[in-house]
C-alpha cells in the first residue's frame, strides 16, 4: 500500500496504508513482543516518506534494517533494504545511495536463498549517468 501511495500519490492508498499501520501498531503494543517492532518501524518510515518528512523516514528505514538484522531475519532485512532503495530513488533522486541499498537487499536475499528475487533485483540496478 505504501508503495502505491508513494508511486501514485492517491489519497485512497495513503488512507488505507495509514489504517493498516495503526492496526499493526496496536498489535505490536498489545503483544509486547520485540520480535515485531521492526514491522512498525518500517511502516513508520513509509508513512514519513508519504508525508515528505525525509529525515525521519531515513532514520526509521535505518532503524528497521538494524532491528531485522539483529533478529537474523534475512528476508525482512532484504525487503527493508529494497524499500529503502526505492524510496531513495523515487523521493530523493539519489541513484548512488539507492544502488547501495539495492545491493544490500540483493546480498541478504542471496544469503536467504531467494535466487529468483536476486535475479529480479539485479536487473533493477541503476546505471549512473555518464556510464
Please tell me about this protein's structure.
The chain is mainly alpha-helical. 79% of the residues lie in helices and 0% in strands. It is globular and about 40 Å long. The termini are far apart. The model has no long low-confidence stretch (mean pLDDT 91).
Q: Class by helix and strand content? A: mainly alpha
How far is the first residue's CA from the last residue's CA? Answer: 34 Å
Q: Which residues sit in consecutive blocks of at least 5 with pLDDT less than 50?
A: none
Task: Output the number of helix runs.
Answer: 7
Radius of gyration: 15 Å
Percent of residues in helical segments? Answer: over 70%
Q: How big a fraction of the residues is strand?
A: under 5%
Mean pLDDT: 91
Taking the sheet with the most strands, its summary is: none
Assign an overall shape.
globular
Total strands: 0
Order of helices and strands: HHHHHHH
Quick description:
The protein is mostly helical. The chain has helices spanning 2-8, 11-31, 37-50, 54-71, 74-90, 95-112, 115-122. 29% of the residues are buried.
Amino acid at each position: 500500500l505504501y508503495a502505491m501511495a508513494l508511486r501514485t500519490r492517491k489519497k485512497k492508498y495513503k488512507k488505507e496504508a495509514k489504517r493498516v499501520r495503526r492496526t499493526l501498531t496496536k498489535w505490536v503494543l498489545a503483544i509486547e513482543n520485540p520480535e515485531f517492532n521492526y514491522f512498525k518501524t518500517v511502516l513508520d518510515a513509509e508513512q514519513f516518506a508519504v508525508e515528505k518528512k525525509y529525515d525521519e523516514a531515513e532514520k526509521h528505514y535505518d532503524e528497521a534494517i538494524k532491528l531485522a538484522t539483529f533478529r537474523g531475519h534475512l528476508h525482512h532485512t532484504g525487503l527493508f533494504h529494497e524499500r529503502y532503495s526505492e524510496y531513495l530513488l523515487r523521493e530523493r533522486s539519489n541513484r548512488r545511495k539507492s544502488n547501495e541499498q539495492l545491493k544490500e537487499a540483493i546480498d541478504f536475499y542471496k544469503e536467504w536463498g531467494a535466487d529468483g528475487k536476486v535475479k529480479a533485483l539485479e536487473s533493477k540496478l541503476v546505471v549512473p549517468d555518464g556510464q
